[in-house]
Amino acid sequence: MVALLGRTAQGDHHAFEEVYDLLGATVYGTIRRVIRDPCLSEEVTQEVFIEIWRTAARFDPRRGSPLSWVATIAHRRAVDRVRAEERSAARARRAASHPVAYDVVAESAEHNLDRERVRHCLKRLTDLQREAVTLAYYGGYTYREVATLLGVPPGTVNTRMRDGLIRLRDCLGVSL
Amino acid sequence: MRLPHPHTLAGAHAMDALDAAGERRFDRHIRRCQECRDEVAELREVAGRLAACSAERPPGPLRERIAATAQRTRQLPPAAGRAAAGWRAWPAGWRAWPAGRTPPLGARPRRLAVPLAGAVAVAVAATWMIFGSGRQDQVPRHPVAAAVAAVLTASDAVMMEAPISTRGSATVVMSLRERRLVFAASGLRALRPGHRYELWLMGHGRDRPVGLLPGPSHGMSGPVIATGVDRGDKLGLTLEPAPGSGHPTGAMLMVLAL
Questions:
Q1: What angle do CA B165, B168, B171 make, to 5 degrees?
Q2: Identity of the residue in B4, B11, B53 whose CB atom sits nearest the CB atom of A155
Q3: Which of B34, B104, B21, B93 minimizes the C-alpha distance to A142?
Q4: DSSP state of B224
Q5: Which ipTM was obtained for this model?
Q6: pLDDT 10s digits, B182-200
Q7: Is residue B78 within 8 angstroms of chain A, CB to CB?
Q8: Do residues A45 and A29 lie in contact, with contact meaning Cβ atoms separated by under 8 Å?
């Protein structure tokens, strides 16, 4: 994948299309969780891949994996877009109609080892940690919005988000 | 209400869950905290795994639309342009800031990730002044100036400044990828005959001389290029007897953590 990004950076369209084939579902799926609307999700997915095309030369494998780089671009854009499109009150109302802790991993039809590992590791978080991480990452909420939704102080939410990710990191064995 | 320590914002930041004020606060902190930068990079990796878990096949026609759009979209080169454009999309970890230690002399070097155009303007101007060239051409043909340009146009170039304790200040542009830096100083105190300023690369169990500063021209001394530079090294400046020394004998006039 690193090599594919390298070739993409040099203008290789075939390599770029391969990047899409490998990471398109991850990007679209992540965006879709945050944005929900399928048309807008498609639009933002396209924006993300065009940004990947434009900035492939800026990717530095020493600073992280291709997945992390792409997921960061995708999640950032999705969050920016949903915050621009929906006012906070409307989003809070929408959130109130969804169960607070939902098992995002179970919703998809595809099962594979990585997915199972994340499911397993998510289960090892406390309820509050899992909910904070889920609402932030898949819901695209700010920590203050999460605090309102969960009825806990914002400082507590920040701590839970960090603790939750650290616990996931250790459980998944992620390191740089 | 006391604000919590910015460390605690790392998780929210890695998941884009900070609001604008939180991002500003965290951004100010992360410039001085290597540990936080490393942590954010790792937490972004975790977030990547969460992203992969929610993978969902996009609609079929999207692939072709993206390919077609890419055909008419120009790519950014690896160098040039504001670093900030890539930074938004990248963990804050890449932005090189000092580890928060105070160098022994009690002066704090400031490190700036500047637009490369600015760094080029500063250092090329210094270079041309030093070599006394009145030419207006942009491409340096002098081998030293070409080496300087190679550092400046590296995608990870950062610029640092540090005061010299006796007088003057130093500017360093460094690329860890190239393992090179360019050093220039201005306003240095004039030397007695038989003495020269000497630059040192210290760390990882060895101290080695980088070179003697050339005599000042228009108030600027340098540039001096150091190669084989690694993260964790320090750059030092001392006053030495004229032929230079194998080890620093004078007091350190500047120590810059790289």
A1: 105
A2: B4
A3: B21
A4: E
A5: 0.89
A6: 888 888 888 888 888 999 8
A7: yes
A8: no
The answer to whether A34 and A138 have CB atoms below 8 angstroms apart is yes
Residue with tokens 């146009």: B153
B137 interfacial to chain A (CB closer than 8 Å): no
Angle at A36 between CA A32 and CA A37, to 5 degrees: 110
Q: What is the CA radius of gyration of chain A?
A: 17
C-alpha–C-alpha distance, residues A112 and A41, integer Å: 24
Q: Which residues of B touch A51 (CB under 8 A)?
A: 89
Contact B15 A72 (CB under 8 A): no
The tens digit of pLDDT for each residue in A86-139 reads 766 566 666 555 443 344 444 444 557 788 899 999 999 999 999 999 999 999
Asked whether the beta carbons of residue B91 and residue A64 sit closer than 8 angstroms, the reply is yes
Q: Is the distance from CB of A157 to CB of A113 less than 8 angstroms?
A: no
CA distances from B220 to A25, B122, B215 (A): 55, 11, 8
* DSSP-assigned beta bridge partners for residue B198: B212, B238
**Positions of chain B with pLDDT lower than 50, given as ranges:** 80-121, 124-140
Q: Does A104 touch chain B (CB under 8 A)?
A: yes
For residue B66 the two structure tokens come to: 């993206």
* CB pair distance less than 8 Å for A162 and B155: no
Q: Is the minimum CB–CB distance between A161 and chain B shorter than 8 Å?
A: yes
Mean pLDDT value of segment A159-176: 93
Say what the alpha-carbon torsion angle B185, B169, B234, A175 is, to the nearest 10 degrees. Answer: -110
